């Protein structure tokens, strides 16, 4: 029983030590993305080394991925903000303002090549999260404001 209380870990030379989050059955670690710390979570799977390699590849191109994610968020969610989520006296939000309000908190990768980037919304959508999902092969494909 004592063994079950010990944290399960996964060591990677680039990311460091992941800790198993047993409820979500994901390994998690904190790592800088574009100069700010974020949580990276990886689904536990048979091919952890492949998933780690995909994460390392994404991290090696983080400026490109950051731009792809934020450009997609602007394209898909800025019109929603300006058409339906403005306060009575609020001016339309520009693309630069929109991006500056987004605060990346976590990145999730799954073994099928999928990803989800989670952001705080900086009150753009009154406290909802900004979720951008897609695949490593095709890029961003889905935007939402859950919560």
Indicate how many domains the architecture comprises: 1
Oligomer: single chain
Helix and strand sequence: HEEEEHHHEEEE
Q: Name the helicity range.
A: 25-40%
Number of helical regions: 4
Share in β-strands: 35-45%
Number of DSSP strands? Answer: 8
Radius of gyration: 17 Å
Strand order of the largest sheet: 1-2-3-4-5-6-7-8
Class per helix and strand makeup: alpha+beta
Biggest β-sheet, characterized? Answer: 8 strands, mixed
Task: Estimate the mean pLDDT confidence.
Answer: 95
Describe this protein with a few key phrases.
eight-stranded mixed beta sheet, 147 residues, single chain, alpha+beta, 4 helices
Give the secondary structure arrangement, pairings included.
Elements: H1 2-5, E1 9-12, E2 16-21, E3 26-33, E4 36-43, H2 48-60, H3 62-84, H4 95-101, E5 103-109, E6 114-120, E7 129-135, E8 139-144
Parallel strand pairs: 4-5
Antiparallel strand pairs: 1-2, 2-3, 3-4, 5-6, 6-7, 7-8
What does this structure look like?
The protein is of the alpha+beta class and 147 residues long. It has one domain (2-144). The protein is built from 4 helices and 8 strands. The protein has an 8-stranded mixed β-sheet with strand order 1-2-3-4-5-6-7-8. Strand 1 and strand 2 (16-21) form a beta hairpin.
Short précis:
By secondary structure, the protein is of the alpha+beta class. Helices cover 32% and strands 36% of the residues. An eight-stranded mixed beta sheet has the order 1-2-3-4-5-6-7-8.
